Amino acid sequence: MKKELIKLDLKKSAKRAKNLMPDTQYPIPNTQKTFTQTFNKYNWDQITQDIYAKTATDVTYALAKSKRDIEDFKALISPAARPFLEQMAQISSRLTKKRFGNTMQMYVPMYLSNECQNICTYCGFSMTNKIPRRTLTDAEILKEVAFLKQKGYDHILLVTGEANKTVGVSYIKNAIELIKEQFSNITIEVQPLDQPDYETLSQSGLYAVLVYQETYHKDEYKKHHPKGKKSNFDYRLETPDRLGRAGVHKIGLGALFGLEDWRTDSFFTALHLRYLQKNYWKTKYSISFPRLRPHSGGLEPKVEMTDPDLVQAICAFRLLDEDVELSMSTRESELFRNNVVKLGITSISAESKTNPGGYVVEPQSLEQFEISDERPTEDIATMLKQQGFEVVWKDWESFK
To answer: pTM of the entire structure?
Structure first.
């Protein structure tokens, strides 16, 4: 009898609780530790002041050390470090050669779709831009792949806009499974996903994920992402945490230089890197250095990042971390890329198209942004060999 009464009371309690529940269902808060807790301990304006207050003495001290911390990094990205740029470049080059040898990894992006539900002020795919939208079919994907394979590529980066219904997890999973037998390394740059989604994609053959915060300035971030899922700053900020917990092999970080002060954004990128390395130490990491490029919509950079500025950022990251991969895309000019590859870069793209079907299927469709270095793959490979590099097309493969 007592058991029956207990069951009855539980049913009544559950019924009362259900009646008290509001119509709107709120998600259960994420109690797991994430980068957000670390990020919230720092103030953007204070970090900016700290960086600009660094002196030549601080830079000299940082350069003299064999292992550098985040405080040293502030000095290396400060205006005070500019007179030391040649010394930084020499150290960066030496450290890169020590860890990576005379090798340069080649990769290529392949855009699968330009459909997007976000409004992003700096992107040609933004929902507000009246452009023809296109998502590749299986047959079209294979046509693009056939072109890239005959160029020699074995590392591919799949890119889409952020449109969950059109290019959601099922579409990405299908694309990975469609081409995984032809590539040893498949990376994606798509909308941030939940941890179970990354686990599913990893099981299907995913190797790495690039997810750029764009800018770590929270207020400025809101101005550039007023609508769409991407407008959720914290969800995007915590994406690498979900990737780390999902066991993804490699995570790529970066900021879009031009939206805010590149020095402060670089600091927060480095802070993010250090946090991830401590908490997900089995994972590999890479840093990219995209600068704002012309696109449909035409946002002008708020803060200009000059070529010497970009060299300083690249060298500072190498001096901070000997093991992190540093990547350079075709956003940069032929002359700049010819010179910067010697200073710390470990992977480089070539002959990139930033529109879906851009290689074969529909070359004239609208690009996400304009590339600068338009040389064919063969020319880039020749340039690297002339500078003493061994061009690496394949350096990793899963055991099947």
So the answer is: 0.88
